[in-house]
């Protein structure tokens, strides 16, 4: 039995996708690509697992932003990169979260959206859509 055929693969994908969407680095695209290429699991199932894990990770970052807004004024943490991300979220609102899959910037978008108290359900839909499209491209690229 290969690693791609075991139950460990989908769990590793979920954890990798979750961690990749938080402020910690991860490599969920590589894990997903490897599992798809192994043909041991249904690609749509892997797509759902990766999307769910990455979306939940992004939601945890959104919640951290929401909690931080309760006790810290935004200006206290402003840095040049933070200002750019915040300006993007202020300009485009929830739509900016379609880019939440981007490395480094995506975490900041989710954090800023929570800090700015953008509506949770709308944010969840935008985050999920962006991440689903990104992972769908990975699955398609690595189908045997």
What is this structure, in a nutshell?
The chain is an all-alpha fold. Helix content is 69%, strand content 0%. It has one domain.
Structure report:
The protein is mainly alpha-helical. It has one domain (8-142). The chain contains six helices and no strands. The protein has helices at residues 8-20, 28-38, 43-71, 80-92, 105-115, 120-142. Helix 1 runs antiparallel to helix 2 and helix 2 runs antiparallel to helix 3. The longest helix is centred in the middle third of the chain and has 29 residues, at 43-71.
The low-confidence parts are none
Q: N- to C-terminal separation?
A: 19 Å
The helix fraction, in percent, is 55-70%
Helical segment count: 6
Largest sheet: none
What is the total number of structural domains? 1
Averaging pLDDT over every residue, what do you get?
89
Strand fraction band?
under 5%
Structural class of the helix and strand makeup?
A: mainly alpha
**SSE topology string:** HHHHHH
Gyration radius, rounded: 16 Å
- Give the overall form: elongated
Task: Tell me how many strands there are.
Answer: 0
Label this structure with key terms.
single chain, mainly alpha
